């Protein structure tokens, strides 16, 4: 029994349990004020919550995985590999930029307080908190496996996919909406999973997450014009998810051939 518990709650899997725990705690705290405040105040309170949760998780991450200081967790080591593995999400960001340049005739209802609280504060803290939770905690255990098999990476990827997707179901009103949200957000999360597994760099995943979330959340304030390019981009919108999924899967599979990550795995095993 002790051996089973030591395996389940050992370094290979403890992060998964912690991610589930913090997902539940975060949802519970959010439910306390969800309908009590709105607008700028809601975004600022929610940003503060994400920052506090992220800081607590960072300290716990360092303790569980024996990191000497935060610089071992958040740095630019292997950033080139991280950017390469994140090519899918980078392409999607470029897609959004072109979409806004060619299809937006104006921004409606976005005040400076909203822009600061929703597009900056909430998104930068989201990248920080969610990447520690759904990539750092869940995926770090993979690097403690002596044999870095494709099947092992795919299992960790699936866990991250499901938890990250389920973490975005709060505002869904139907089963179909929930399945759609889980799949689309799960695919976006796969890009960040690919970054972490291929480069073992969490900071690049955080930065790209933050950058992607800005245009993704700005869309509700955009007044659109049906230009030829905009119509074309609309037609290929869901195709972008396919590209991200395929690109991410390629780098997740290739991660086992990453010599830098293999050396790190050997040093912490």
TrEMBL record:
<keyword id="KW-1133">Transmembrane helix</keyword>
<feature type="transmembrane region" description="Helical">
    <location>
        <begin position="41"/>
        <end position="61"/>
    </location>
</feature>
<feature type="transmembrane region" description="Helical">
    <location>
        <begin position="82"/>
        <end position="101"/>
    </location>
</feature>
<dbReference type="GO" id="GO:0080120">
    <property type="term" value="P:CAAX-box protein maturation"/>
</dbReference>
<dbReference type="Pfam" id="PF02517">
    <property type="entry name" value="Rce1-like"/>
</dbReference>
<feature type="transmembrane region" description="Helical">
    <location>
        <begin position="236"/>
        <end position="253"/>
    </location>
</feature>
<feature type="transmembrane region" description="Helical">
    <location>
        <begin position="179"/>
        <end position="198"/>
    </location>
</feature>
<keyword id="KW-0472">Membrane</keyword>
<dbReference type="GO" id="GO:0004175">
    <property type="term" value="F:endopeptidase activity"/>
</dbReference>
<feature type="transmembrane region" description="Helical">
    <location>
        <begin position="12"/>
        <end position="35"/>
    </location>
</feature>
<protein>
    <submittedName>
        <fullName>CPBP family intramembrane metalloprotease</fullName>
    </submittedName>
</protein>
<dbReference type="GO" id="GO:0008237">
    <property type="term" value="F:metallopeptidase activity"/>
</dbReference>
<feature type="transmembrane region" description="Helical">
    <location>
        <begin position="203"/>
        <end position="224"/>
    </location>
</feature>
<keyword id="KW-0378">Hydrolase</keyword>
<keyword id="KW-0645">Protease</keyword>
<keyword id="KW-0482">Metalloprotease</keyword>
<feature type="domain" description="CAAX prenyl protease 2/Lysostaphin resistance protein A-like">
    <location>
        <begin position="116"/>
        <end position="214"/>
    </location>
</feature>
<dbReference type="InterPro" id="IPR003675">
    <property type="entry name" value="Rce1/LyrA-like_dom"/>
</dbReference>
<feature type="transmembrane region" description="Helical">
    <location>
        <begin position="150"/>
        <end position="167"/>
    </location>
</feature>
<dbReference type="GO" id="GO:0006508">
    <property type="term" value="P:proteolysis"/>
</dbReference>
<keyword id="KW-0812">Transmembrane</keyword>
């Amino acid at each position: 029994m002790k051996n089973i518990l030591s395996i389940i709650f050992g370094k290979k899997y403890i992060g998964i349990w912690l991610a589930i725990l913090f997902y539940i705690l975060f949802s519970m705290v959010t439910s306390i004020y969800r309908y009590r405040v709105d607008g700028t105040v809601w975004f600022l309170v929610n940003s503060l919550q994400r920052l506090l949760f992220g800081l607590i998780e960072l300290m716990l991450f360092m303790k569980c995985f024996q990191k000497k200081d935060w610089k071992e967790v958040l740095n630019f080591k292997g950033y080139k590999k991280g950017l390469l593995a994140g090519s899918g999400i980078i392409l999607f960001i470029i897609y959004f930029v072109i979409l806004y340049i060619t299809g937006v005739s104006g921004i409606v209802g976005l005040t400076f307080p909203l822009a600061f609280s929703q597009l900056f504060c909430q998104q930068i803290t989201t990248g920080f908190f969610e990447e520690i939770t759904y990539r750092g905690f869940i995926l770090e255990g993979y690097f403690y496996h002596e044999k870095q098999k494709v099947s092992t990476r795919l299992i960790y990827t699936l866990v991250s996919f499901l938890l990250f997707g389920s973490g975005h179901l709060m505002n869904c009103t139907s089963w179909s909406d929930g399945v759609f949200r889980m799949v689309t957000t799960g695919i976006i999360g796969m890009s960040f999973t690919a970054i972490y597994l291929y480069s073992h760099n969490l900071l690049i995943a955080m930065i790209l997450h933050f950058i992607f979330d800005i245009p993704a959340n700005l869309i509700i304030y955009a007044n659109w014009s049906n230009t030829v390019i905009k119509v074309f981009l609309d037609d290929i919108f869901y195709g972008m998810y396919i590209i991200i999924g395929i690109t991410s899967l390629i780098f997740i599979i290739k991660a086992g051939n990453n010599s830098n990550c293999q050396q790190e795995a050997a040093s912490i095993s």
